[in-house]
Amino acid sequence: MRVKIPYGKRELIVSIPDKNLLGVLHPRRSRARKSESEIIKRAVLNPMGCPRLKVLVSPKDTIAIVVPDLTRRCPRDLILPILLDELNKGGIKDKQITIFIAIGMHRPLTRREIDKALGKNITRRIKVKNHNPTNKSNLTHLGYVTAGVPAVVNRELLYNDHVIAIGVIEPHLYAGFSGGPKTLSMGMAGEETISYTHSPKFLDRPGVRLGVIKDNPFHRAIVDIACISKLKFIINVINDDLGHTIFATSGEPQLAFYKGIERATFYYRVKAEEPADIVICGIGWPKDANLYQVSRALTYITNTQKPIVKKGGLVIISAQCEEGIGRGLGEKRFYKTLISERNSADLVKKMQGRQCLGGEQRAYMVAKSLEYVDCAIVGTKIPETVNKMHMLHFDNLDEALDYAFANLGKAAKAYVVPHSLVTLPVSG
């Protein structure tokens, strides 16, 4: 069987004998009858749990709008015109609004990237600023929340009367789902908060899991931080596997987010009958821009209650990695940490139960996954770097599959997960 999987902004074809293929795992497809703009506008004008924004604000108020960085495929350019129009109808002038790019520990956006992501029609009107998680003079400590998490956020954010967060709801390895409070609580947090919540000591707590928010201490912490950071309103979208917006929700942060999670779970959860020897993952732009983001596919496949890959199996990921390991501080720490030990087992032993700096936790999670399975990255521009990080590299999918069948047997079974970061496979 021939299956298409994303690779950057194009596709690759993977050919697998029918006798070896257990299935192709896709999120549910939605036949949206409205355009993306119509879906978003309907959500903004019909918020959950609070009045419309034009009623919620007063003409003298200042507004902070928090938007995700380029690691999230978010229709910022569609959401912002609708949002600004609603604020203007409430008497808010453009000069009273600031847009913050929530970068977490990723790199800041360039001016050109900001113009492209938000639209020049927006950047000509509204002040736009990148968050800086390491500039202590622009951070404020709000105390401690659930599980002793320090709530350190952007100081300038809190100068505003209202904070609005835009986000994308999709599976997240620690928070359960991204979007909702996470855009602010992690995207606009200081390094102290990010490092604490992303340390092995915290991530190994019971309940911290992909696709789960109930009894999840990571989720509880980001909700608490958002509540004391003036987050009053969210606009979140759900995208299909092609990146098109198929659902939007807005309003009071928790109500709107939980409604979105219900829909996201319906769209993204898919059943796999049995675990496979091989799982082939696609990602696509923008998530395959760097190895830090690409490695999420490996950890998503292995860090579920019942993984769809057998212990000792192989996860194959197609990814270009145009930005190498990544250009942000967190990405650089990820690389440095993962190559610091001779093998993944030594790294897990060294880091287990400890605190770490933001970015280093990804090395820990990848190392844990590599204790369970092998991982091969296909078609990347940094093959030597991949090998240094205890992973395999192949130029194409045929080479990777030849290796898999040679090492796991000609009868080895495989799944293909074309959109692995928006698919929640459940085994059994």
Which key terms come to mind for this protein?
single chain, 428 residues, alpha/beta, 2-enoyl-CoA Hydratase, Chain A, domain 1, Rossmann fold, 2 domains, six-stranded parallel sheet, six-stranded mixed sheet, 16 helices
Description:
This protein has 428 residues and is of the alpha/beta class. It folds into two domains: 2-27 and 273-427, Alpha-Beta Complex (2-enoyl-CoA Hydratase, Chain A, domain 1); 36-268, 3-Layer(aba) Sandwich (Rossmann fold), CATH 3.40.50. Helix content is 33%, strand content 25%. It has 16 helices and 20 strands. A six-stranded parallel sheet has the order 3-19-15-16-17-18, with helices on both faces. Strands 6-5-4-9-12-13 form a six-stranded mixed sheet, sandwiched between helices. Strands 1-2 form a two-stranded antiparallel sheet. Helix 1 runs parallel beside helix 3, helix 12 packs across helix 14 and helix 13 (344-351) crosses helix 14 (360-372). It is globular. The relative contact order is 0.16.
Share of residues in strands: 25-35%
CATH topology-level fold name of the largest domain: Rossmann fold
Structural class: alpha/beta
Give the termini distance in whole angstroms.
23 Å
Q: Work out the radius of gyration.
A: 21 Å
- Give the name of the CATH architecture of the largest domain: 3-Layer(aba) Sandwich
What is the percent of helical residues?
25-40%
Shape: globular
* Number of discrete helical segments: 16
Query: How would a crystallographer describe the biggest sheet?
Result: 6 strands, parallel
Please state how the strands of the largest beta sheet are arranged side by side: 3-19-15-16-17-18
Mean pLDDT: 95
CATH level-four homologous superfamily name of the largest domain: LarA, N-terminal domain
